[in-house]
Amino acid sequence: MFNKISFVNKESLNNQGTIIFIDQKLSLGSDLLLLDQQYHGLISKTIHNPLIFTGKFGQIKIVNSIAKDGEVKYLIIVGIGDEAKLKTSCIEGLGGKILSSSLCYKIKTIGLKIIYNIGQYEPSIFASLIASGVLLASYKFDKYKTKQSEIDKFTLDTFEINIENNSKAEKLFAEKKLLAKAVFFARDISNEPANIKTPQSYSERILEHLEPLGIKVTIIGEKEMKNLGMGALLGVGQGSQNESKLVVMQYYGLGNESSPVALVGKGVTFDSGGISIKPANNMDEMKYDMSGSAAVVGAIMALAGRKAKVNVVGVVGLVENMPSGNAQRPGDIVKTMSGQTVEVLNTDAEGRLVLADAVWYTQEKFKPQCIIDLATLTGAIVVALGKTYAGCFSNDSELADKLIEAGNKVDEKLWNMPLHKDFDEMIKSNIADIANIGNVPGAAGSSTAAQFIQHFIKEGTIWAHLDIAGVAYSKSGNALGPKGAVGYGVRLLNQFIQDHYEK
């Protein structure tokens, strides 16, 4: 993990780059006026040229000057827009943008001095958020690269934040570092290639990282799952030579065994589509089809890491969906742990089969206060919401509202999507209790998938399903990370539980 961020209460004069925040009013306070004089008016000349700088949120302009000793110094001028509209997620995003811009200029040491409140945020809070954004954006997944360009190899030496109450900023940042560590785990495991990330190796990695945090980890193999009657989950993995696993994680931060919050994740380590095989284009991205499970593991890691006062259990179904002579066929009937039978009309609609048994097991075993499942479930959710929102389906409007609110705080956005009894008609089977796809091609694909899962939610159980297919990985990257796995859901779940369940 990136360990080059420090909080000090004495300004260093040796940093190569200096960060300056400017709002849309383009005003300079007394401290910045003094700095402007030191830099021969470079700041005022830059911000008063509307062709160069306007102060809009996220705008970054880097200008350089030559110090008396001949060393090149950089002013990193950052637009924050309307201070009154700054959200915590916006500030973290600024930290990420600062890092990426600085790396482009090969600035090795950066200094930031915070004296006054920025917007409604006191200096220590603002400083910790900037540092969090820098940390999240520092993530790289380059373990398999044997050759790298100079720009790829370049790293920041120090990011120094000068602030009077540096101990408070350090304390706030320490918690954010624990959260970033959990996000990085989720990104790492999602980015792993499928030949490395089998259900077996994935379950072992969960055990290795979570047990030292005081989390009880139980790995259930195929024999035990068969005894439990998990025909739906086992059917998905039967075409693979890699054994399926169900991993159960129990974190009891309250010190008792009172009813927990339950998180369930789809963990298809590679999804070829099975006999209903996917097109070749972009099939490599199906290594990310376990991102829902990564969010669950990461969230529990974050909660345990900061010793949250809450009881949480996580259950992830880890399978590989492959075509073979032993693979599940379209038209097969499977019996779920609930006793309901499913006609498998499309073997590429496999995630809901995994979740059917996983959510039923979770309810039977733990009787949770609520259950939230996460899955890269449908391409239809991408058609509906693009790459901006994940879909939120819930049988409880209050739960949905709380999840959406938490998502907005950390910029992991959710959009409320419909469940309706009419969708039951679309997943009727002629020969089984239910079919695993809708009978109207191209219609309500994400809603019928959620409706399918709801058939395995017991009456009285509060439940939400998050379809994260559009947001789990990025082809271009964003302010808080490079292209690849995003780690979506870790911060959302952490925020949700922190806001509504911790004591």
Question: What is the topology?
Answer:
Elements: E1 5-8, E2 17-23, H1 30-38, H2 42-47, E3 60-66, E4 72-81, H3 88-104, E5 109-114, H4 123-137, H5 150-153, E6 158-163, H6 166-191, H7 199-210, E7 216-220, H8 222-228, H9 231-237, E8 245-252, E9 261-271, H10 291-305, E10 311-321, E11 332-335, E12 341-344, H11 351-366, E13 370-375, H12 380-385, E14 390-394, H13 397-410, E15 414-416, H14 422-426, E16 434-435, H15 445-454, E17 463-467, E18 473-474, E19 484-485, H16 490-500
Parallel strand pairs: 1-6, 2-4, 2-5, 5-6, 9-10, 9-13, 12-16, 13-17, 14-15
Antiparallel strand pairs: 3-4, 7-8, 8-10, 11-12, 14-17, 18-19
What's the CATH H-level homologous superfamily of the largest domain?
Zn peptidases
Total number of beta strands: 19
Name the CATH architecture of the largest domain.
3-Layer(aba) Sandwich
| End-to-end C-alpha gap | 30 Å
Supply the number of helical segments: 16
